[in-house]
């Protein structure tokens, strides 16, 4: 991949003005928690439109059940991020993507980037919700 030709374009994610079927991959990393439900739904529809058949949509978002988010919500040691207006659950992500023409290839939880927690979270994230730092979904356009 030649990154020298990479570029960033600022657009309305719900109405990009890109041609239909023009992208192989779309990433929404740390984005959807900042969107109201109706805006998120419009984003999913727009991504479906601009992806090529078989294109990949990657969604990565904080998990409300993680202990960091619980501490933030309760103002314990951490302050809430007021821009996180609507956390999306794993079930909601999968349901919304599935009902809008995507096949869920993979849905999983990701551990924290904080080194001393990473190994502990890896051990327990599949068993205990408070160790699930991020929700991650790989969806394929049918």
Detailed description of the structure:
By secondary structure, the chain is of the alpha+beta class. It has a single domain (22-141), classed as Vaccinia Virus protein VP39 (Rossmann fold), CATH 3.40.50.150. 29% of the residues lie in helices and 25% in strands. It has four helices and four strands. The protein has helices at 37-50, 67-73, 90-99, 115-124, and strands at residues 23-29, 51-62, 102-110, 134-141. Strands 1-2-4-3 form a four-stranded mixed β-sheet. The longest helix has 14 residues, at 37-50. The chain starts with 22 loop residues before the first strand and ends with a strand. The mean pLDDT is 93.
C-alpha termini separation: 25 Å
Q: What's the arrangement of strands in the largest beta sheet? A: 1-2-4-3
Q: What is the CATH H-level superfamily?
A: Vaccinia Virus protein VP39
- Domain count: the total is 1
- What value does the Rg take, in angstroms? 16 Å
CATH architecture descriptor name = 3-Layer(aba) Sandwich
Could you give a short account of the major beta sheet? 4 strands, mixed
Task: Bin the helical content.
Answer: 25-40%
Overall outline: globular
């Amino acid at each position: 991949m030649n990154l020298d030709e990479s570029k960033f374009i600022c657009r309305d994610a719900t109405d990009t003005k890109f041609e239909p079927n023009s992208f192989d991959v779309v990433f929404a990393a740390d984005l959807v928690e900042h969107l109201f439900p109706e805006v998120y739904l419009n984003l999913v529809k727009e991504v479906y439109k601009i992806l090529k058949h078989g294109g990949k949509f990657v969604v990565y978002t904080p998990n409300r059940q993680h202990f960091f988010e619980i501490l933030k919500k309760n103002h314990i040691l951490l302050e809430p991020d007021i821009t996180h207006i609507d956390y999306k659950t794993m079930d909601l992500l999968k349901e919304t993507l599935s009902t809008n023409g995507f096949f869920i290839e993979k849905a999983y939880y990701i551990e924290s980037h904080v080194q001393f927690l990473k190994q502990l979270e890896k051990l327990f994230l599949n068993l205990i919700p408070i160790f699930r730092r991020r929700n991650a979904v790989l969806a394929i356009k049918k």
